[in-house]
Every structure is written in structure tokens, then in C-alpha cells.
Design brief:
single chain; about 100 residues; mainly alpha; 5 helices; elongated
Length: about 100
């Protein structure tokens, strides 16, 4: 899911709106516009980071020499183990 998908996703927008409007902030120190943009930025950053890590995993898999037929398996293994490194891929490929 990229940034454009997030902007169009009504459930994502609904979740942000709930966090900002329904979970009221008392004291008046934070205005809702700031809270809305901060919440949106935080949620979007998580999605972007996951996409970035998947791309990083793919680049490492290619660098190590994963073939077209096993590259997805290698990427899924790295993401599942949360260890996106050359050593992890080399050990995984040696086992398979």
C-alpha cells in the first residue's frame, strides 16, 4: 500500500478521524489540526517503513544471488525473522 492508497483508504481516514476527534484531548494545549496531521504522519510512516524494509530485503536477496524462483521465499523469510542481513540470507540459502 503506497501513500496514494492511504489517502484513498476510507478505513484509514476513519481511524485517524477517530483518534483525533473521538479521543478528546483535554487542557487545550493541542489543536485538532496538529493532532490529525501528527497521527496521520505516524500511521503513514509505519506503512512506508514496512515497504522500505521489503524493498531492502529484495535488494539483499538479489545481491546474494537468490534466483527468480526463490526470491519471494527469501524475502518472506527475512521479514518473518526480522533479520534483513546478508548473513541471514546466506545461512537460509545454505539450508535450502
Amino acid at each position: 500500500m503506497d501513500a496514494e492508497d492511504l489517502r484513498r483508504d476510507r478505513y484509514f481516514k476513519k481511524a485517524v478521524r477517530y483518534l483525533v476527534e473521538d479521543c478528546s484531548v483535554t487542557g487545550g494545549y493541542v489543536d485538532s489540526g496538529y493532532l490529525y496531521s501528527a497521527t496521520l504522519r505516524t500511521l503513514a510512516t509505519e506503512v512506508i517503513q514496512k515497504g522500505h524494509m521489503a524493498l531492502h530485503a529484495k535488494n539483499i536477496a538479489i545481491a546474494v544471488g537468490a534466483t527468480n524462483k526463490n526470491i519471494q521465499t527469501v524475502i518472506q523469510y527475512m521479514l518473518a525473522t526480522s533479520d534483513i542481513s546478508l548473513d541471514n540470507v546466506i545461512l537460509f540459502l545454505a539450508k535450502t
